[in-house]
Amino acid sequence: MSRSTGSGVTTGRIAAAVVLGIVAIAFLVVGIIYSVEPAGSLPTWLGHETAWINNKNVPSPSYHPLRAVGSLIAGVVFAIGAWFTLRYQPTSAAPEATTPRVPEHQ
After folding, report:
1. Within-domain flag for 8
2. What span, in angstroms and rounded, lies between the C-alpha atoms of 66 and 73?
3. Full residue range of the structural domain in which residue 68 is found
4. Domain tally, the chain
5. How many degrees, rounded to 5, is the angle at CA 83 between CA 31 and CA 29?
6. Is 18 domain-assigned?
7. Domain assignment present for 96
8. pLDDT beyond 90 at 78
9. CA angle 90–93–99, rounded 5-degree value
10. CA distances from 65 to 35, 41, 57, 59 (A)
11. In this structure, how many other beta carbons lie within 10 angstroms of the beta carbon of residue 50?
């Protein structure tokens, strides 16, 4: 049983939109970090690894541009989901009949 605000949006839909919005912001921030930072200076929590090649610490040859684009796309998809969660208005049920009912004779 969800309470409703004046515009017909339930608190459950608001909560879902907030969660989707937070996830969208997180993906967008990660995508921007991947885009701005060079591969050698990415933090380890983003999957950055180094390899020792010829006595040098070389950044991992992973797909940082691909991860950046994927994160940005995921952020946009979640943002669109949050927007639709708040803006979508389900259609009401079809009216039963447009002709008036005539009571049956007993």
Report:
1. no
2. 11
3. 25-39+61-89
4. 1
5. 15
6. no
7. no
8. yes
9. 145
10. 7, 14, 20, 14
11. 13
Dump pLDDT digits (tens) for 3-62. Answer: 554 556 788 899 999 999 999 999 999 999 988 887 777 777 776 666 666 777 666 666
For every residue of 70-103, DSSP letters joined together read HHHHHHHHHHHHHHHHHH--PPPPPPS-SSPPPP
Which tokens is 97 given? Answer: 């009949």
What the block records as the tokens of 81 is 């989901």
Dihedral, 37, 40, 45, 47 alpha carbons, nearest 10: 110
> Is residue 7 included in any domain, yes or no?
no
Please choose, from the candidates 69, 86, 74, 83, the residue with its C-alpha nearest in 3D space to the C-alpha of residue 23.
Answer: 74
Q: What is the pTM of this model?
A: 0.66
